[in-house]
Amino acid sequence: MNQVIILGEHPPRQTDPEVVLENIWRSITSPEAVEEMIYLLESGMPVEGIARTIVFAGFMEGEFTPDLGFTLAGAIMEMIAAIGMRAGVKNLKMSLEDTGNKEFKTNMLKLKQARETKEMENMNLDKPAIKAKPKAKGLLAKPEEAA
What we know:
This protein is mostly helical. It has helices spanning 17-28, 31-42, 47-60, 66-86, 102-122.
């Protein structure tokens, strides 16, 4: 059974800012998350865009309130920037205003196309999507319909 959650209907899981920041830090410093974040930062995604996504996701998942998320957005941006600087990302963009150039849009398009290509490669297109049912044989089989 699917449960429908209405935003604001339940209290947030966490209200202590220090605990929320610690949870976010633990989440974004996992090896998979760091790899993905570095890839996004090198592709021209601004730190602010990633931080906003984290804040929005945390609020939508009921981890914390929107006001707490917005209060912590600056600290989250600093965390992301630290990861990017430590990884040696060149031309680290901090704000969404830094994305007005054509290079950023081109990089985002290339990123999207690369992901779509990878998804297509992972799909097995050689096999038919629907397998034909074998013809029923035997005494109790349904007679074939005339075409």
